[in-house]
Amino acid sequence: MDAPDDLNLEDVELVAEAEEERRYSFDRLLDNELLDNVVIPGYGLLDDDRIIFDEAEVVEDEDIYDEDLGLPEDDDQQFDDALPIFEYPQDDDELPLQDDNPGHEDGPDTYYAAFQEPALIRNAYIDILIQKTRYGSTHQALKHQLRAMHRALSNRPEICAEDFANMAQTIGTVERRLGVNINGMITTFTLCPTCNRRYTPDYIAEAVVNTCLNPGCDGVLFNVRRLASGSLRRVSNLTFPFASPIVWLQHLLSLAGTAELLQTWRTEENDRDGPLGPIASDLWMENIDMNKPLGDISDGWGWRSTEAGLSRFYDPNTGEVTDRRTIAEPIRFVSLPFGLSLSLNTDW
């Protein structure tokens, strides 16, 4: 009813009609009687008047207990590409991102090239590397930071246009220019989990069967897994990463500052006087401070007593192995410009 204009509604008690109690059966939640004369496209009725959504697809009784909730079987399932990943649109003035794969960039002009670039750009590379190795930043975050640094350095007068145009745009390029990319140095072999036979990555990629080739061995080398994108990947059950010591030494000695660092042990007066003879043990004992502990391998007698120019000979008659000098005068090995004394240990 309509209330008078001068009526104060706050003083009036409102009365609501009593609610009619109704019981609803769980399997009769829809009032089908109201739909008898209504045509809904795509809807149909079962024999017991239940509504279905497609007359061409009648639900079987056992389908309601399907643990996969109606997902298609593997044989019938069609795998599409993975969902697209959201990415920030590139600015119009940005350089296109370079591929992380070195490809044609391999060579001395690419590796360690950051040390020929301006210091501001090189320091930006180092900051990016720290973000990855120390704080675990994702590749997307690193790309964004590289683009931000690219924009920030664009107005610096001390950076010429050529250096700015050649600035790295991906973490892969940054690692190669700093000389810290080691992916090409490591080879991951697959081992048979039963007999430990070794297989190369090329064999695993092309193998027809996934079992060991040794007679009588039934070891399984790898399993095939389906990725979220629908592609198949071979995952080895036992792997063995390997890197050549020679390659590692070449990489180590090529790093900027390593040559200077290798000379820091030269603290005595004659350590920089050129080739010297090996030091005798009694002379070494006379020159050490008995109250001072040895703090480094270079403080020991063996460091300055090892000779250079030695070759190892094996006598097949006696089975003896001897080291013989192949030069006229004995020379202290570490007195050479780069006399590196290395130790290779193995654990069985």
Describe the structure.
With 348 residues, this protein is α+β, with helices and mostly antiparallel strands. Among the domains are: 113-178, no CATH class; 186-243, no CATH class; 246-335, no CATH class. The chain has nine helices and nine strands. A three-stranded antiparallel sheet has the order 4-3-7. Strands 1-2 form a two-stranded antiparallel ribbon. It has a two-stranded antiparallel sheet with strand order 5-6. Helix 1 runs antiparallel to helix 2 (139-152).
Report the count of strand segments: 9
Strands across the major sheet, in which order?
4-3-7
Our estimate of the beta-strand percent is: 5-15%
Which class best fits the helix and strand makeup?
alpha+beta
Helix content: 10-25%
How large, in whole angstroms, is the Cα Rg?
Answer: 38 Å
Shape: extended
Note the main sheet: 3 strands, antiparallel
Order of helices and strands: EEHHHHEEHEEEHHHHEE
Mean pLDDT: 75
Distance between the termini: 97 Å
Which helices and strands appear, and what pairs or packs with what?
Blueprint: E1 44-45, E2 51-52, H1 119-133, H2 139-152, H3 161-165, H4 171-178, E3 187-191, E4 198-199, H5 201-206, E5 222-226, E6 232-236, E7 239-242, H6 245-254, H7 258-261, H8 281-286, H9 301-305, E8 310-314, E9 321-325
Antiparallel strand pairs: 1-2, 3-4, 3-7, 5-6, 8-9
Helix pairs in contact: 1-2, 1-4
